[in-house]
Design a protein that fits this description.
- This protein is α+β, with helices and mostly antiparallel strands and 93 residues long.
- A hairpin with a 4-residue loop joins strand 2 and strand 3.
- The model has no long low-confidence stretch (mean pLDDT 90).
- It has a three-stranded antiparallel beta sheet with strand order 1-2-3. The chain has a two-stranded antiparallel sheet with strand order 4-5.
- 18% of the residues are buried.
- It starts with 9 loop residues before the first strand and ends with a helix.
- The protein has a single domain, classed as NE0471-like N-terminal domain (NE0471 N-terminal domain-like), CATH 3.30.2020.10.
Length: 93
């Protein structure tokens, strides 16, 4: 199946409270991921200053989220995290 190898493109993002990141993907999927668990890892320690975390943007060339200092996250992994969160929340209601 080729669709497993399609790269999901992020079209919009916004930093939210408690190190959550809201994302919208080109297929219309929207949702949040929690990134606070990365704070202890190397370059992500910069985010301890929440103002640095809030500087997130979508790289227009790669269509993934980026921060100053070269931090970028894989859009496909974020897509699957958002989708899994939606399934988990739908099952818990």
């Amino acid at each position: 199946m080729l669709e497993e190898f399609d790269t999901m493109r992020i079209t919009a993002c916004k930093a939210e409270e408690d190190y959550k990141l809201w994302l919208r993907f080109e297929d219309g999927l929207e949702g949040r991921v929690f990134l606070g668990n990365l704070l202890e890892i190397g370059a992500f320690q910069l985010w301890r200053d929440v103002r640095e975390f809030e500087k997130v943007s979508v790289d227009p060339e790669t269509a993934t989220v980026t921060w100053e200092g070269g931090i970028r996250l894989d859009a496909d992994i974020l897509y699957h995290d958002v989708k899994a969160n939606q399934i988990q929340h739908a099952g818990g209601e």
